[in-house]
Automatic annotation (TrEMBL):
Listed InterPro entries: Thiolase (IPR002155), Thiolase-like (IPR016039), Thiolase_C_2 (IPR055140)
Domain Thiolase C-terminal: 236-377
Top-rank taxon, per record: Bacteria
GO molecular function annotations of the record: acetyl-CoA C-acyltransferase activity
Protein name: Thiolase
Native species: Hwanghaeella grinnelliae
Residue ranges of coiled coil: none
Length: 382
């Protein structure tokens, strides 16, 4: 395997419109986050010579971004594999930088989904076999996975609820989190059923929000304003698009992307200080903990009990509050990057993970379809 370990680093980070941003378009928010990231890096807009983006509200994302920002990049990419796109962009930008195709990469996303529509945009599935059953995607697809996991492994709704409760506990320490306040297991269990067995509080938020980061080669990163956060490794895997084509509803392609990302990064599970997992629904966290090797298959529900992934637990997971309690503007993968960089820099305030040197980011797209794993590290790892 080609090793890209430590070849590039994130040197700038910006966010905008977290939660609700009335009066701003998706591109407005994207631009605000991008300009904030460029300023954070101590660079100028003219320094950006490559753009990597995907947007839920704009099909030709990179074209819209470069026009809005008024830049003329020499490399650009609009790969859209759903919410995992931005973990894939970390890998693609690293490849482009290492090949000398560009020098300074902007990775960005923005959405005004909450104030524009106020509801989760349905992820249409291409398989006609589903039409007769009138699925409510994407929620129905994830409910199928949750039901199967419960059937095979004895996972309970209480275990799913514990994922949401842990996420809220982290969110309560994050001033940027949209949903804050007390949340109990009973609150989750008693919330309105959306798609059995997933209740309203098993489902992600619908918010506005934007995030962006700046990536450059490691030799240049050391001379810039911020402490570099290094790209250690990454890998993607995609086994299906429609949920009816998923080989096994309890096993995601994270079981493939994860080991390859670990291998490139040269780290083991004991090295991981933070796990940022795409938690569009509570079942996601359980599936990804299993498939990424933090616990055996079928044990994810038991793994998350007793505050194991909450503040003070054995494994710090989704320390910003995740898509369940922090922010989820249609595609969430860019916010995994934002929190990991914040933690590795040591800028997370009350929720700061002690000695956070290695962060795992796992993005998910479609209906458990595209899976991309990335690992970031501090200067101590290089």
């Amino acid at each position: 395997m080609t090793s890209l370990r430590g070849k590039t680093a994130i040197v700038g980070l910006g966010t905008a419109g977290m939660g609700e941003a009335p009066g701003f378009s998706a591109l407005d928010l994207m631009a605000q986050a991008s300009l904030a990231a460029i300023e954070d890096a101590g660079l100028k807009l003219a320094d950006i010579d490559s753009v990597f983006t995907a947007m839920s509200q704009h099909a030709l994302a990179s074209m819209n971004v470069v026009e809005y920002l008024g830049i003329k990049p020499k490399f650009f990419d609009s790969t859209n594999v759903g919410g995992s796109s931005f973990e894939m962009h970390l890998l693609q930008a690293t490849l482009a930088l290492e090949a000398g195709l560009c020098d300074t990469a902007l990775i960005c996303y923005g959405s005004n989904q909450r104030t524009a529509s106020g509801k989760l945009v349905s992820a249409a599935e291409p398989n006609w076999h589903e039409v007769a059953y009138q699925p409510r995607h994407p929620i129905t697809a994830y409910a199928l996975a949750a039901s199967r996991h419960m059937h095979e492994f004895g996972t309970t709704r209480e275990m799913l609820a514990d994922v949401a409760v842990s996420a809220r506990a982290w969110a309560n320490m994050n001033p940027d989190a949209f949903a804050r306040g007390p949340l109990t297991r009973e609150d989750v269990l008693n919330s309105r059923m959306i798609s059995d067995p997933l209740s309203k509080l098993d489902c992600c938020l619908v918010t506005d929000g934007a995030a962006a980061c700046i990536l450059t080669r490691a030799d240049r990163a050391r001379d810039l304003k911020q402490k570099p956060v290094y790209f250690l490794g990454g890998a993607g895997a995609n086994w299906h698009r429609s949920i009816v084509a998923m080989p096994d509803l309890t096993v995601t392609a994270a079981s493939d992307s994860g080991p390859r990302a670990f291998d490139m990064a040269g780290v083991t599970h004991s090295d991981i200080d933070l796990a940022m997992l795409y938690d569009a629904f509570t079942i996601n966290t359980i599936l990804f903990l299993e498939d990424l090797g933090f616990c055996p298959k079928g044990e994810g529900g038991r793994f998350v009990q007793d505050g194991r992934i909450a503040p003070g637990g054995g494994l710090a997971v989704n320390t910003n509050g995740g898509g369940l309690s922090c922010v989820h503007p249609g595609m969430y993968g860019m916010f995994l990057i934002a929190e990991a960089v914040t933690q590795i820099r040591g800028d997370a305030g009350e929720r700061q993970v002690a000695d956070c040197d290695v962060a795992l980011l796992h993005g998910n797209g479609g209906t458990l379809s595209s899976q991309v794993t990335s690992l970031l590290g501090s200067g101590n790892t290089i």
